[in-house]
Design a protein that fits this description.
3 domains; Spore Coat Polysaccharide Biosynthesis Protein SpsA, Chain A; about 475 residues; 6-stranded antiparallel beta sheet; globular; alpha/beta; Jelly Rolls
Length: about 475
């Protein structure tokens, strides 16, 4: 049985302002409308003998992740399972927790295929063939990584040095790993051959990986065992929330440092498929065909006497005149302008926003919630206007605000409202008023989306002015 394990937790700060903490890179939509996470699911499902798909993600991303799976769920003949991290650690704790979970339910010989959620691979059929080769090596006792044939002397990736071919297979023994080399070293490795980019994708049996931890990182395996013992799994639930204290006790380290660079039984399968880690705006720009001037455009843009630029616009028309080698990313509430060769420094923008407490590092103008989404239409002194959309059958928490009152106007659909001691329905073109200090709840009892306009007024309108009394999503 093959168990794809999708790792979906990175913030993707180098792709700000589209990727933000509350809606990170795996949920970004590409030009074709697909999200990177959705493509990862579809790619995993092309492999042979898939028994289930396990996603390891942060608790805050569970509902968005579930929604993405629902988009591809009709294509799946297997179940989805979610392991929810109480905090971000690194790949070793996540993968080990997943391996113990799979081992307990499917046995030592279940083959784990570890896939980051933010990679882009177009050639799914060739990918599935390479996975079959890796699975064969894994069942033969190897810990397998996938190597990408380098197309340039890249200093931002780690490298795998391949040795002798493993007898009877298409894989090679690994001589060693080289972490993000300098330019000269990278150039020599590419020229000499035998070196591959370390893709961050792995394949091994659950028992094989646990045995490697027992030998090379026994303290971490002990901590992971305690985490699993303390984790409570409700019968019939599709997700498991990993125990906070147990998970925190595991070392914050990558699977490469913890195991792959130390183990003696590591093999590499050279990838025959195309690959991009979509790690920067430069990488994303390459997905769009360039015009005669080397410009790439996604959205509505006019480029005059401009060369080598990438422009992406979600809503507005963007115009450039007489510029070269710029990256321009325009969203509803933030604009990025950067030199093309300095896009890696975008993460410094996010760090500064976070340090000053600016919400733009975390939130978009449209914010996704388990029940739907809201969009801030206008934000002024002592007032804020939102468009709220609630999915059928979903409801907001029973809550109260200290500093603001709210006026709700239903645009479409039907709202069931709790306002203080009263409970009633609000129909299109009807409204209700929620005074500050009143307990209230909004629910969509219908079969179509509920859309309404919310007008907030008060001395403080921050999203943290909320007291939850009960919540179907466990946020109270």
């Amino acid at each position: 049985m093959l168990i794809p394990m999708i790792l979906s937790g990175g913030a993707g700060t180098r792709l700000w302002p589209v990727s933000r903490e509350s809606h990170p890179k795996p949920f970004m939509r590409l030009a074709d409308g697909n999200s990177l996470l959705g493509l990862a699911y579809r790619r995993a499902l092309t492999c042979h003998d898939v028994g289930e798909v396990v996603t390891i993600t942060n608790r805050d991303y569970y509902f968005q992740t579930r929604d993405v799976w629902s988009e591809v769920g009709a294509e799946a003949s297997c179940a989805a399972r979610y392991l929810l991290e109480p905090m971000g650690r690194n790949t070793a704790p996540a993968i080990l927790a997943g391996a113990l979970d799979v081992q307990a339910r499917h046995g030592d010989d279940a083959v784990l295929l570890v896939l980051p959620a933010d990679h882009l691979i177009r050639d799914a059929s060739t990918f599935a063939e390479d996975v079959a080769r890796a699975a064969s090596l894994a069942l033969g006792g190897h810990l397998v990584t996938f190597g990408i044939r380098p197309t340039r002397a890249e200093t931002g990736f780690g490298y795998v040095h391949a040795g002798a071919q493993v007898t009877g297979s298409d894989g090679y023994e690994v001589r060693g790993f080289v972490e993000k080399p300098d330019a000269g070293t990278a150039r020599r490795m590419v020229e000499d051959g035998g070196h591959y980019w370390n893709s961050g994708m792995f394949c091994f049996t659950a028992g094989g990986l646990v045995a490697a931890f027992a030998e090379l990182a026994p303290d971490m395996l002990t901590a992971a065992g305690r985490c699993r013992s303390a984790t409570i799994e409700e019968p019939g639930q599709r997700f498991v929330e990993l125990d906070r204290d147990g998970f925190a006790a595991m070392e914050n380290i990558s699977i490469d440092y913890a195991i792959m660079e130390k183990a003696a039984n590591v093999a590499v399968v050279p990838a025959s498929f195309d690959w991009s880690d979509i790690g920067s705006w430069t990488a994303l720009a390459e997905l769009t065909e360039a015009d005669a001037d080397g410009n790439r455009v996604h959205g509505d843009a006019v480029l005059v006497h401009s060369r080598g630029c990438f422009v992406q616009s979600e809503e507005r028309t963007v115009a450039t005149v007489g510029v070269e080698d710029l990256v321009v990313i325009d969203t509803a509430d933030a604009l990025l302008v950067a030199q093309r060769d300095r896009v890696q420094e975008v993460k410094e923008v996010v760090a500064r926003l976070k340090k000053t407490g600016h919400e733009a590092y975390k939130l978009h103008r449209t914010v996704f919630r388990p029940w739907g989404a809201y969009t801030v239409l206008e934000n002024g002194s002592r007032y804020k206007i939102k468009r709220i959309e609630v999915k059928p059958g979903e409801s907001l928490s029973l809550q109260m605000h200290h500093h603001r009152s709210e006026h709700w106007i239903v645009v479409s659909g039907m709202a069931r409202v709790v306002n203080g001691e009263d409970e009633f329905f609000v129909r299109p073109n009807e409204s209700t008023y929620i005074p500050a200090g009143h307990k209230h709840r909004l629910e969509n009892p219908g079969v179509v989306d509920l859309v309404m306009i919310e007008v907030q007024s008060g001395e403080y309108l921050g999203e943290d002015d909320i007291v939850r009394f009960s919540d179907v999503y466990g946020r109270a």
